[in-house]
Amino acid sequence: MAQDKRSEMDSDPLIRMEGITKRFPGVLANDSVDLSIQEGEIHALVGENGAGKTTLMKILYGIYSKDGGQIFFEDELVNIEDPKDANNLGIGMVHQHFMLVPPLSVVDNITLGSEIAHRGVLDREEGKRRIQELANDIGFEIDPEAKIEDLSVGVRQRIEILKVLFREAEVLILDEPTAVLTPQEVESLYEILNNLQEQGKTIIFITHKLNEVMDISDRVTVMRDGKEVGTKEIEDTSKKELANMMVGREVLLRVEKEEPELGEELIRAENLTVTNDEGVELVSNVSFSIREGEVFGIAGVQGNGQTELIEALTGIDKFSSGTVEVQDSDLTNVDGKRIREEGVGHIPEDRLDRGMITDFTVTENFVLGYHTFERYSNRLFMKLRNMDKHAEEAVEEFDIKTPSTKTLAESLSGGNQQKLIVARELSQQPKLLIAAQPTRGIDVGAIEFVHKRLMEERAKGKGLLLVSSELDEIVSLSDRIAVIYEGEFTGMFDADEISKEELGVYMTGSKRQDKEEVRRKALGKVTLQE
Amino acid sequence: MDIFAISTLLATIRMAVPISLAALGGLFSESTGVINIALEGIILMGAFAGTIITNATGSPLLGIIMAVVAGIGMALIHAIASVTFKANHIISGVALNLFATGVTFFLALVLTGGSQISVESTLPKFLGVSPVIYVTIAIFFLSGFFLYRTRLGLRLRATGEHMAAVDSVGISVTKMRYLGVLISGALAGLGGGYLAIEQANFFTKGMSAGRGYIGLASMIFGKWTPWGAAGAASLFGFSQALQFRISIPFVPDEFLQMLPYLITIFVLVGAVGRATPPAEDGNHFLKEG
Amino acid sequence: MNSERRKELLFNVLMNGVAPLVAIMIAFAIGGIVITSLGTNPFAFFSRMFSLNFGTLRGVSQMIYRATPYFFTAMALSFAFKAGLFNIGAEGQMFIGGLALAWVGFTFTWLPFPILFVLCLIAGFLGGALWGAIPGYLKVKRGAHEVITTIMMNFIAIALVQYLVQNHFMNPNWGIPHTPTVAEGAYAPSLDKVIPWFPAGTRANIMFLVAIILAGLTLVLLDRTKLGYEIRATGLNPNSAEYAGIDISSRTVMTMAISGGFAGMATANFILGPGSHYFLKSEYGGIGFSGIAVGLLGRNNPLGIILAAVLFGFLENGALGVQLYFPNVPRQIVEIMQAIILIVLVIVLELARKFLKRLQKRG
Description:
The complex is a heterotrimer.
Chain A: H1 2-5, E1 15-24, E2 27-37, E3 42-46, H2 53-60, E4 68-73, E5 76-78, H3 83-88, E6 91-94, H4 106-111, E7 117-118, E8 121-122, H5 124-137, H6 153-166, E9 171-175, H7 183-198, E10 202-207, H8 210-216, E11 219-224, E12 227-233, H9 239-247, E13 265-275, E14 281-291, E15 295-299, H10 306-313, E16 321-326, E17 329-330, H11 336-341, E18 344-347, H12 351-355, H13 362-366, H14 384-397, H15 414-427, E19 432-436, H16 444-459, E20 463-468, H17 471-477, E21 480-485, E22 488-494, H18 500-507, H19 515-523
Parallel strand pairs in A: 3-10, 3-11, 6-9, 9-10, 15-20, 15-21, 18-19, 19-20
Antiparallel strand pairs in A: 1-2, 1-4, 4-5, 7-8, 11-12, 13-14, 13-16, 16-17, 21-22
Chain B: H1 2-31, H2 39-57, H3 60-84, H4 89-112, E1 116-118, H5 131-149, H6 151-161, H7 163-168, H8 173-200, E2 202-204, H9 211-221, H10 226-245, H11 253-268
Antiparallel strand pairs in B: 1-2
Helix pairs in contact in B: 1-5, 1-8, 1-9, 1-10, 2-3, 2-4, 2-8, 2-9, 3-4, 3-8, 5-6, 6-8, 9-10, 9-11, 10-11
Chain C: H1 2-37, H2 42-54, H3 57-82, H4 90-107, H5 115-142, H6 146-169, H7 191-194, H8 207-224, H9 226-236, H10 238-243, H11 248-264, H12 268-271, H13 287-297, H14 302-322, H15 333-362
Helix pairs in contact in C: 1-2, 1-15, 2-3, 2-14, 3-8, 3-11, 3-13, 3-14, 4-5, 4-6, 4-11, 4-13, 5-6, 5-11, 8-9, 9-11, 13-14, 13-15, 14-15
């Protein structure tokens, strides 16, 4: 497919964005970005979280207004002020968070804004007919009368695509379309995209997964920190090169890690299961054990039960069955306070919506979760002086950049907010630290700092349960790695016996080890005999 | 007995008209996600404006029209505050209710020297009842059609459920919300005009007497659908009619008064079937970028 | 660093100072226009109002008396706000609390001052707290939104109180339905008994001092206690509060109870203070709803609320007195002005917020 398009690549681009700049309070989201899109290509836009990909596309689609730069469509300067302008140019967007109205039907959702109506009265029959036609064209079945709220995520995404096609879009922007899909759904999305390309559509595809880029796209543009780093033909590049462009450093930035010195068993979790309100198992029968001085990594594509596992481990949610013991204390389904008292710290994956209260001061955030501890409060009152003293020490020690400890946390940068959370959890000297996505969305300097501190804890004989969707992080920090897929541990490895590529195979569910063996290894010692 | 039953039925309908119009008004507003507790004040304004204009012009029809216009005027303030200026919908509503209470009392005193004003003429009856009753029934049929079968109705309902989705296809959320709120003002204003001109034949301070809130209660009990709201309003109208007609042994009047509010709470806690309000109820549309 | 602090200062000045003042000024301007249209000189009108309130200590005293109940209903709104809750039910909580405190006052008549007085206040608090806790509980257990339930609870309270007074507490020979009078042990001393230089013979009483003390205690509770920390955490970010092991449900119910408790004490000023000493429902109507305006005008800060309550007392007391001099201007002019303050305030606050955001974006 890519080859067929080669001849057109040299012609004038369909869309040219030049010097696009966009500022948000405190952030330069797009810094003079250039991008050109050829007609009929699949163009991947890649970069880490926060690199500015979505911002750039929302500007092209008219959701954001740009602070600088120009957009040319078919060589003409265009002014795209709202999505209607973009639609008129034949540009459509499939958002990461679907723009569908849950209680309304498929036909109402697809036609919304471009309804088929006679004198204002809807003609749903005609709408249904056209939707069926469109769906047939790109090869799938759909029930136009179903309500969105009853449909699966994969189907909803198809409806979003239909919605764009219904508006006769020639250019489709897809924002992280695979983030929410199962592997099978990803496959069929690829098929749909290929069909669309055959029909002559142009596709811009935002992702941070390089496999997808290699699988499906003709060209790729890499963004980093709001800037465009470069554009490559897919056959002229490799994943390694793209990865380097994305992060701007050698990816294999191996963390200094000494041989593990293992001590006593810290936590023993057996047969953990978490069920949601509808009775669906989100975590199934997970068992593991972590010892002093050991980093136990859980690798997995986001949304495979990691969040639920951790929230139940830390007292936010509850297990429906299973047991958790931390050094002989039964901590199954106890509250967060008790868990902290037993020396288990928790860096939550969502910094802003779990880990801190942005309208609290640095000091107040520093005691969040520990505010009931004797050093910070008595029965009635907070010990404000103690709180301040400890917070100031931590700001110093962890090099948190803030005007003062009385500053509201919202005015700190993302990296410093994360450092504040890490500082809070480490200052309490936990025996076991549960760290979920500890470096998500923060700058390289902060990432290295956090990694270094985590490794220091390991060296001090603390245990660490690390959950991350960043493979590099998992591989370079962990001693043992479990792969979680659809709520189950499907593979269990020593960190030095498995490559990233191999982990990727397990993470996508294409391969799995024997259940009993995984369980035995996860509960067993670090040195594994295969 | 038959005559008694028929007269109770008629009383029920009469009581239900302002309540059901308020309920339908609340429904239009909330279908775009704007909570409108100013219905109470809008009814009061409609009643006052209707009375004054009827007496000034001698035309109850003009009075009814002015009641609708006054309702739209109040709703416009609510829309400006809560849609354009993103004020909390509840606060804006509370402010308008305080405003209506003050302004109508104040103007009644200034214009007539008293707090009660008799209405000097009413609309000619049609088959023995006020024509506004037929208009109200027609409005319900039209509203059902409008909300579920027309382009604009679809857009209104979509706005109340997912503003960003509506905006993303190029529909103005602000316009939809203004439309929903203004329709709600017109309907509640009509209810107020009917209340003073056709039902009570006078205006008196505070005469809305909770009807706006009972309207909201009907909307909730009716699960945010026009026919549900009409049914609930009729039930509450019936309970009001009973209070005026007979005293039921062992059931104090006050307990009948509580009924709509108690039922609403039962509905909200899921004891009488679950009701889901529009997802965007009370939210503001914060356009990114 | 410095600019950060300057920004914070600017934010405070704009949101907590300029915005309320602008709202008040616009309300006076519109009030003035209305008064002019009635053929009265607004400057004469307002300056008469001013001298009636501030011209004599007696005037100040009367103003304080009018202001006091607003403090309590406003605190009901604002305290709940701290936990992210919207309590529109001060009106109903006030009625239930009022009847409860009156009942204690006319039932345990043998108890001396200050025991009975304090018991009455506690009863008022508990009555309001119960009425506030119910919506809190329904929210926590069944997900019923507190805005709607508190509104509905207002009307249930009104009907319930009317029923109880008429059928259980009232002597049928009395024309207007009210309760028996409370015993002398429940009387709130008038202010001149505590502050010697205050004039005797006005209805101002120590409930105003109780309000000031409660304002201080509330600040301490919110800023310095564990409970306050948890309430604020729950209000600002329930997800993070949950992460921190805070029992959000219990905090929600407790906040609604304390909030309702404030409203429950609002009528003590009327019932226990100098005057008729009985619960008369028609005398208090609307104070709960106006409290919403007072709370917002006071920017949900206890000290700000005292100022805002005094402004409302100023308007109300002034309106009552000014009638003698300008009989052609109905006193409801101040109700209109109070409503305008509220509408304009929310608009001005949004404008200020937009302005600050733009400022932040620029640098």
